[in-house]
Design brief:
The protein has 11 helices and 21 strands. By secondary structure, the protein is an alpha+beta fold.
């Protein structure tokens, strides 16, 4: 908070200083020059006296309580004149560095009790809780020779959460369920796991092990057991938040794109009556939501990422999977979103996922960095480009070898670029749960 001259004052002062050269050459110009200098100082002082001694401006700020990653939202900024005389100047709002939006001076001219209002479209590319608080207001004197800079405050909190849009839209929830299984009908089968529904007459082609021999003893007719997939399945979402998942694709981190896709799977699972939970980990477990059903569970899963801080540590699968096993009292579908860039990490992933599949069904969603295929598809104008392309091809080959080994153990594998993960993940989830594989 303080007083400072405006640009007009600085220009006038520089002009008088420049004229002082002529004063040195001609003594008759001393008196006019001194008069002009004194007059400028007088009007500057008078202009400063008309500036308010206390801040007479109130900042008003309105924005959503939570928004999605890289999702545009509207912030309304208002400025009210609480003084007894008109004020004019400009306002400079202070936004977090991770927010994209307009950062310009907002000119105002307000009569007493008048309010100026501006609307901005912003977006945030960093997950977390943010407080938008301060702004700088410049109050210009009536002669526009002096100004006063004051801090104005209007605290407002916004939480930036991947996938939070689904909490406010039933249509998005229903779309996620439709994407998981276009029919949404309960798949019926003979001789398959799930809930027993009824007996049906045996027809040629039915598996012999599905015959109910007790029913045959009672009726003398062959009958088979009909099953429907179990309704209250356990679904556990596991998201890697380690160093590799913290890299950006465009403006968004891979971990946030994974969390957004998983929020759609959670919505589809809970819509069908399944129990769903989530674990987020890097070198250690950062957040755990045990599998539950009910309308409030989706909000817990979506908001679980809010407490996860980016620490850029290496991923450790073993402690996360030990915690995950303890959190699952029965057979479940485990959906893991992760990435790896070397053979050692691939072996650790394979070893740990093999332990999981002894008891559970598993999906590994490997989030491939788009730079690999972009490098392979690029032209090769020089030797450096050739070496980059060879390195990309080598890494892709190692990646496919690891994923093939994981798939050969019975694990379902998705290898997709981060912004293309949502569709394949929902489809694979739907095919597994409607196919009675749990």
């Amino acid at each position: 908070m303080g007083y400072s001259p405006t640009r007009i004052t600085i220009i006038l002062a520089l002009a008088l200083i420049a004229l002082s050269v002529f004063v040195l050459m001609d003594d008759s110009l001393v008196l006019p020059w001194a008069t002009c200098m004194v007059g400028l100082l007088v009007v500057i002082g008078a202009d400063a006296l008309f500036l308010p001694r206390k801040p007479e401006l109130t900042l008003l700020r309105h924005l959503p309580s939570d928004v999605g990653i890289s999702t545009p939202f509207i912030m309304t900024l208002g400025l009210q004149n609480d003084g007894l005389r008109s004020l004019s100047g400009a306002v400079f709002d202070i936004l977090p560095s991770s927010f994209d939006g307009q950062r310009v001076a907002l000119p105002y001219s307000l009569a007493p009790d008048e309010i100026a209002e501006w609307k901005f479209e912003l977006s945030a590319n960093e997950r977390g809780s943010f407080t938008l608080d301060r702004a700088t207001a410049v109050i210009v004197g009536p002669l526009r020779l002096m100004r006063r800079i004051v801090r104005v405050s209007a605290p407002a909190n916004v939480a930036v959460i991947p996938g939070v849009e689904i909490l406010r839209s039933n249509e998005l929830i229903l779309k996620a369920a439709r994407d998981a299984d276009a029919g949404i009908t309960r798949a019926r089968g003979v001789g398959r796991g799930g809930e027993f529904e009824s007996l049906a007459p045996y027809v040629p082609g039915d598996p012999p092990q599905s015959v109910d021999w007790r029913a045959y003893a009672r009726t003398g007719q062959l009958a088979v057991r009909r099953y429907v997939p179990e309704r209250r399945r356990h679904i556990m979402l596991a998201c890697d938040a380690g160093r590799l998942m913290g890299t950006r694709v465009g403006n968004t981190r891979k971990v946030d794109l994974a969390l957004e896709a998983m929020s759609r799977v959670a919505a589809a699972a809970l819509q069908r009556g399944d129990l769903c939970g989530m674990i987020i980990f890097d070198g250690e477990v950062q957040s755990l939501v045990p599998p539950r059903a009910g309308s409030g569970q989706l909000a817990k899963i979506v908001r679980a990422s809010l407490s996860v801080k980016p620490r850029h540590s290496e991923t450790a699968f073993t402690p996360a999977f030990v915690t995950l096993n303890h959190a699952l009292p029965r057979r479940a579908l485990v959906i893991l979103a992760t990435d790896f860039d070397n053979e050692a990490q691939g072996w650790e992933l394979q070893r740990n996922i093999a332990q999981i599949t002894r008891r559970h069904v598993a999906i590994v969603a490997a989030m491939r960095d788009p730079v690999y295929h972009a490098t392979v598809a690029a032209d090769v104008p020089d030797t450096d480009a050739a070496y980059r392309q060879l390195a990309a091809l080598t890494l892709l080959e190692e990646r496919q070898t690891i994923l093939s080994r994981i798939h050969s153990t019975g694990v379902h594998v998705i290898d997709a670029e981060p912004n293309e993960l949502q569709g394949p993940l929902l489809n694979m989830y739907g095919s597994i749960v409607t196919g009675g594989r749990l």
